[in-house]
Amino acid sequence: MSKNKLFIVFSLITIICVFSIAAIANQCGFPTYITKESKDTEEVVNSEDEKEDILHREESSSEEKSSEKNQEGSLEKETPPEEEHSNEAVSAEAPTITLEVYEGPIYSSSDGICYYRVKAIVSGNPIPDVEFSKDDSNGAWGEYIAQVNLNNSSENYLLNATVINSEGAASSSIALKWECTEQETKVQESSISNNETIEYFYEIAFGSEYGSSLPLLHKWKDDVRIKVNGTPTSADLDTLHQVANELSSLLNSISLITVDQNQNIDIYFTTLDQFPLILSSYVQGNMGFFNVWWDSSGYMYTAKILIASEGLSQQERSHLIREELTQSLGLMKDSNRYEDSIFFQGWTNTISYTSIDREIITLLYDNRLKPNMTKEQVKETLGIP
User: Fold this and answer.
1) What does the pLDDT look like over 306-324, one tens digit per residue?
2) Lower CB density within 10 Å: C or N end of the chain?
């Protein structure tokens, strides 16, 4: 009987222990595992609170990525890419220079001269200044290009250029001689109508980047009078005058000058938040922007240009001054065809015209081409099959 009682007591204790262990296991719960994608590892989450936190973070991350994608999709080419930051120090470097003929020899029948444009290929850190022994363009082609005019067939000239920075100096020279004939001039002028130039002209000169304008030519009839507004740097003003001089030399029917009043182009150097207040048509994301107006005959009569005064290097701003002013003359579209062109669609900091840039600028203001012309009418006028 005592054995039976002992057995019963032992059985009851065993049953109680089993149920106690089950209760503890149920109370603690077996871990629920979810995984969160990470760049390099997989994170294990052991609680519902952490699970909710992770899911919330993933949802926020998704929304941020979506927002970034939409923002990127709305960016235009005048938005510079984010700069890559590096902790590596850039070592100082002594300057080097090489001179090469950029354009020429070209005979100008109006002046009776044979001229060359010579480009300086420069390296060094800090970026060195360049000094030419002669520049008959007075800086019109930029800091690194000099023009040398030869006045007769017996004249030669040895062009010297020197570069200097804190690490030293270097120099280079190039011999230039009269190699022009009037026949070469005719070839040079007719080369404007070659297929490559015409195709690029068609791509750039008809219609505009924004808006719904028809694919017709537009150009200025009168001289362009530019008034400066806002807070330009001295380098901004130097660039503006330089570009205006270059364009005046390329256009055979109008000139560009800066004025204090009676302007037909206003250029504003200001902050981005002011852009939409000046131009309601401003498209967000552009660091440079312009708007032009023309009459029913297709002649332009006024324009506004916006240049960001913050968030850009001086070279980038100089690029925008050149591009926006040039495009406001009637070459209003961009292209992916030539990366070194001032009309390149992507973000660049080009501060000079390529040969084909100059050709299409000159072609637009050829007296044979009239505003409101179509591509077919231009083809017929130029005698292109």
Assistant:
1) 999 999 888 899 999 999 9
2) C
